[in-house]
């Protein structure tokens, strides 16, 4: 369940939203309420909600300012703005600051809520996947792994296509350079041969799937680009010192 905070100074509106959330049967749990943006910000700091459903027009601090300050303080919770027709420009401004969507208060109904929160649910799931990827692949955060443009193109290609058949010849065709020259230059710039770089990337992906999913060893090997189970197990043990099954059984490797 996604933890949800409601920020609105109109109690009838809050009660209506609560009823709709219950009827909708969506994976969102309301964990608190605040009557203005200042109180809402304090609750964001304390409760760390996944979602904030906030009115735009409120005393003390309005919803757009709440969103802006929350972003400045580093909170990445999703925001859904509640607005009246006359506040439409404020709603558009909120989207600029990163709000997921807005809902017109006067036309809020069950179907509209389901549609909006369905979008938010998808965003939150993507965020979770990205955070997991950052844990296992911190090098993806680097914009330029080397100081050579063409080698960076190869690395970027491997990041996106590591599970496919990648060879020195195909990389030669990708950047239109001599294969032997690429082989020497790639090792010079990365400290690894192209084959070892690809293997390491596949093994890292395999480690993530072993820790984060219940896929079989065979399924994982195929997904990360190994032609058969035995070869996957052999290369995995070469890089990790343990078999995939042994790795999966270690508690420290599972979130």
From TrEMBL:
Domain HTH araC/xylS-type: 152-250
Modified residue annotations for 4-aspartylphosphate: 55
Pfam families assigned: HTH_18 (PF12833), Response_reg (PF00072)
GO BP annotation list: phosphorelay signal transduction system
A GO term, aspect molecular function: sequence-specific DNA binding
Domain Response regulatory: 3-120
Keywords: DNA-binding, Phosphoprotein, Transcription, Transcription regulation
InterPro entries for this protein: CheY-like_superfamily (IPR011006), Homeodomain-like_sf (IPR009057), HTH_AraC (IPR018060), HTH_AraC-typ_CS (IPR018062), Sig_transdc_resp-reg_receiver (IPR001789), Tscrpt_reg_AraC-type_HTH (IPR020449)
Gene3D superfamilies on file: 3.40.50.2300, Homeodomain-like (1.10.10.60)
Record flagged with keyword Transcription: yes
Keyword Transcription: yes
Name the record gives this protein: AraC family transcriptional regulator
């Amino acid at each position: 369940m996604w933890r949800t905070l409601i920020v609105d100074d109109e109690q009838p509106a809050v009660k209506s939203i609560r009823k709709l959330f219950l009827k909708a049967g969506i994976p969102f749990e309301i964990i608190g309420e605040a009557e203005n943006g200042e109180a809402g910000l304090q609750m964001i700091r304390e409760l760390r909600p996944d979602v904030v459903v906030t009115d735009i027009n409120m005393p003390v601090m309005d919803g757009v300012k709440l969103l802006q300050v929350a972003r400045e303080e580093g909170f990445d919770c999703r925001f859904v703005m509640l607005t009246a027709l006359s506040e439409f420009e404020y709603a558009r401004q909120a989207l600029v600051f990163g709000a997921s969507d807005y809902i017109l208060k006067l036309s809020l109904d069950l179907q509209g809520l389901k549609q909006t929160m369905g979008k938010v649910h998808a965003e939150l799931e993507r965020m979770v996947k990205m955070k997991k990827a950052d844990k296992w692949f911190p090098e993806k955060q680097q914009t330029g792994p080397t100081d050579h443009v063409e080698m960076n193109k190869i690395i970027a290609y491997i990041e996106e296509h590591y599970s496919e058949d990648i060879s020195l010849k195909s990389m030669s065709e990708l950047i239109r350079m001599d294969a032997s020259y690429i082989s020497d230059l790639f090792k010079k710039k990365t400290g690894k041969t192209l084959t070892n770089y690809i293997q390491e990337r596949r093994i890292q992906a395999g480690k993530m799937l072993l820790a984060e999913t219940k896929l079989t060893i065979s399924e994982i090997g195929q997904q990360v680009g190994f032609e058969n189970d035995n070869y996957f197990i052999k290369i995995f043990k070469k890089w990790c010192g343990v078999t995939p099954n042994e790795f999966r059984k270690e508690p420290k490797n599972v979130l």
